[in-house]
Amino acid sequence: MAFDSTKLKTMLVLPLITLLAGSLSAQSVTKNGITYSVLSEAASTATAQAEDTSIKEADIEATVSINDKDYNVTIIPFNAFKDCDSLASVTIPSSVIMLGGNAFQNCTSLKSIDIPSNVKNIFTNVFSGCESLESVSIPDGISAIKEGLFNGCTSLKSVEIPQSVSSIEAKAFKNCKNLAQISIPAAVKEIGDSALYNCQSIETLYIPQNVATIGSNALDGMDKCSGFYVNYQNSNYKGDNGVLFTKNGIVLVKYPAAKTDKEYTIPESTRVLIFNMQSFQNCSNLEKVNVPVNMANNLAFPGCNALTDVNVASGNSSYKSVDGVVFTADGKELLIYPSARAEEYTIPEGTETFAKETFNNCAGLKAVSVPATLKLVGLQDYFANCKDLSAINIADGNAYYKSVDGAMYSKNGKVLIFYPFAKESEYIVPDDVIMVSGNAAADSKMKSVVTPENLGTIGENAFANSEIKSATVLSNDSTDGSIGTKAFFGCDSLETLSIPYIYAIDSLAFGNCKNLKSITRDIVGNPSASAFDGVDTENCVLYVPAGMTAAFRANECWNKFKNIEETGVNTINNATDNAESVSVNGNIVSVNGYKATVNVYTTDGKLVYSGKNGSFSLANGIYVVATGKKSFKIAVK
Fold it and tell me: Does the structure show a pLDDT above 50 at 348?
């Protein structure tokens, strides 16, 4: 049956949404894993889609017989072959005029595809997620590269875009990291948001004369690009030595990430950098930038890891620089600390705040001195990835924080807020500390930690991935105290752990501590069943008080440990240590002379007494006494 595309286009009057819907008609037939369904009786047209996602090869027929009538296959509908991750080969016949949205999305085995010249409409996300697709030729007559068309096609190396295309829509080539070259047709007026985002292999980009709009983040992540070149007849943009500007020069749109110059002076006419496009993102060779007097907005240099100095012209009303560091003109906010400065830095007095990004990835920064004027809350989050940082020193008059030996605490000293990454020490947490905040010492080079008996809470990820070899948590808080989720997660060097009395141990608190060899524990408490997931419970020894093995074996968490050994703690009636004493007379227990709090527990971890001096009555049984210096058992008979 001859195929007349002119007749088809005249007769095809169904609404567009019907063409893309891909719903199976009652009139359909399945052949070789492909289901063909009648689209229009009048036009004698049909659709083709996968019977299921297991299909490996799709040789789509141009003409198919359904109920003894021939139909031309014209539409690959919406979701037709979506998620067919074994589909390696597709043949599309010349009868097809449309590819519906998501038609081949996530066909991860598909390496190439030929799109017939009769196809005039290719809708959104058709090849999105086709991570093996290496090359494709788009037929002439297509007017737009639709949104997300090749998004995530990480193997795509080349693409031929016809001159009929006037728009490259949002995310069209996003994350095509191996796309080395792309030729933008002269008719293109719009490059949409994130259209070329993370196209890491493009080395130069030529922008034709009709481009009027370049969307947010459209050129971000092009880390090998050394130049943007603009047709001189373009009335909206211009290039200046490979740097992209608006035509009037007021806005610096994009500085090429791979441009080899070490120093760059922003032109006097420039007033604004593009915030959403991050004009100077990942400029790996740039060491020094000179900022003109009229620069007013969005000054930022994320990922410029060679940058040592940013110098602002005198008289700028928005910014000022002090020794290559950028502040607001009034000096109250620190805006840019160049990430390649390898030194100790004293934030000037008068500075009140800075952004979380200011010191991000300052790998060479060794110490920071914080002035009394700084008003930031949550300061621990502001030094992410400053892996050489060994000290934070807080001025005495600061209203929010104080420092002791380079570690940062709340003003009242009750909360450990931040322990610098590169600070190597055997750390004894001060007696006043009752809480270690989340992430406080995560990723640090701390070698060991001993906490005070007053400690109540260790926050989530507090010591995660640190270099700790031994940890002793002397908290006597057996009712509300807790070791938070993933508090010591991933501490590969941790070998010995003592956690006598703290009650709750949350999920994965010691997860993946693969080299943990021994744990000392005096009460069963309330550990999560997953608290020690990833620990070698076949070989790690759990030490418990004499007579308590059965209680530990009855617990879901502790029962995972193959080796539970009882320590030689004796059951006694009287214990004395100079002026300090605990005595038992029948059911009466007396505590005398202690300066620190004495806690008495049942063997299952319930607190029955807390104090320094006094007498109290207990039921018959065995109890654990924790004095802060040592622990022992008493028998009440």
Answer: yes
